[in-house]
Amino acid sequence: MDTIKYILSEDQMPLAWYNIQADLPTPMPPVLHPGTKKAIAPHDLEPLFPPELIRQEVSQERWIEIPDEVQSIYRQWRPTPLYRARRLEKALDTPAKIYYKYEGVSPAGSHKPNTAIPQAYYNKQAGVKRLTTETGAGQWGSSLAIAGAFFDLEVVVYMVKVSYQQKPYRRAFMEGYGARVVASPSDETEAGRAILQMHPDSTGSLGIAISEAVEVAAQCDRTKYALGSVLNHVLLHQTVIGLETLAQLEQAGDYPDIIVGCTGGGSNFAGITFPFMGAKLRGEQQLKFVAIEPAACPTLTKGKYTYDFGDIAHLTPLVKMHTLGNSFVPQGFHAGGLRYHGMAPLLSHIVELGLIETRAEPQLGCFAAGLTFARAEGILPAPEANHAVKGAIDEALRCKESGNSKTILFNLCGHGHFDMQAYMDYQAGLLRDTEYSAEEVALALAGLPVM
């Protein structure tokens, strides 16, 4: 019998997160204070984050223990399955072997609870009563809403306005878990009001929503901010994905030649790749990593590697990352979780080290790849995950052309059950490929902070 699923038992779950910073050949550039532009001290982050998350943010330890209470909640859906995509391989007529780790079995339908749960746990331990956050497509907001329900924390979500309008069911999902969802930009914050005064019809961006969430958190001692991607501790928590996959591939007697992932802020890509990348950095394995991003928001392929703010109101620290400029507002394409102007500083640093190939893909090709995958494997991917699917299919077709059999792994980071309007629009021929606006990016980059 040809095995399809590789399943771990609960007692085989990782007991610690993997911190790739311990294996980097050169350390990351320092995070800078937004006012002084000097290296930030851990205590400078205390208005936004609890002590343990700050410690994890700056840690150089290779392994950071997962608390028992977090492991207990993880076991509600973890370990997640690893699939051998045998039907997709047959449909593509490729000699490649394709595996995908499926994170869509979580309560939120994506990988995001892997960090939402520990973030809520550490905030609860620190006496926090309320969390504020931003969300694009809603997967992160959904995950934090669930985590808030588990730990009895109030959650306020600033949802990018175009997604708020496009995805009413995702909004209802968050509200079902007790979160309050606000369309961003809003009139509830100074940052939101400033944007609305200049652009009354603004469709919003993650940079704007972050400004609103950070502003509210900074004004109250019992309120903290939670971020769903970009930061070091968020990428750290996601490594449970890759650590489980290592054990599952050992079951399969296989190891990847190529790992493909989609990139918006970087957490999903980091989660599947970092444990394997650590092995490459230590000289234990050789393999290729490919990051796929949307052509309408091509941070890695078209952005500038420089210091920038993570938000439009300049409330966040300055970090060195690939950026399109913090004031850049991408068009309202359907992969809302990938509409961020910057890339995770840690991932950006690794790209600069030459360890990752980067590609940008228009949305129509990604939707076509997603439907090819769905009709073969039976899982309808989220629009964000379609970018990884497209990259994996492209690699498999290259194997077909060359006659080489390679092992390809990707992370199917979420399902598309809340994205049916996007698929309806695609199949009706209503979607269009949108390129990023070079003029708007140039304008946004012109406003980068002077260092």
UniProtKB/TrEMBL annotation:
UniProt-listed InterPro entries: Trp_synth_b-like (IPR006316), Trp_synth_b_CS (IPR006653), Trp_synth_beta/beta-like (IPR023026), TrpB-like_PALP (IPR001926), TrpB-like_PALP_sf (IPR036052)
The keyword Lyase appears for this protein: yes
Per the record, the pathway is: Amino-acid biosynthesis; L-tryptophan biosynthesis; L-tryptophan from chorismate: step 5/5
Question: What cofactor(s) does the depicted protein rely on?
Answer: pyridoxal 5'-phosphate
Q: Does the keyword Cytoplasm apply?
A: no
One Gene Ontology cellular component annotation held by this UniProt entry: cytoplasm
Keywords, in A-Z order:
Amino-acid biosynthesis, Aromatic amino acid biosynthesis, Lyase, Pyridoxal phosphate, Tryptophan biosynthesis
Query: Tryptophan synthase beta chain-like PALP domain: which residues?
Result: 76-414
Functional description taken from the UniProt entry:
The beta subunit is responsible for the synthesis of L-tryptophan from indole and L-serine.
The family this protein is said to belong to: Belongs to the TrpB family.
Name recorded for this polypeptide: Tryptophan synthase beta chain
Gene name as annotated: trpB
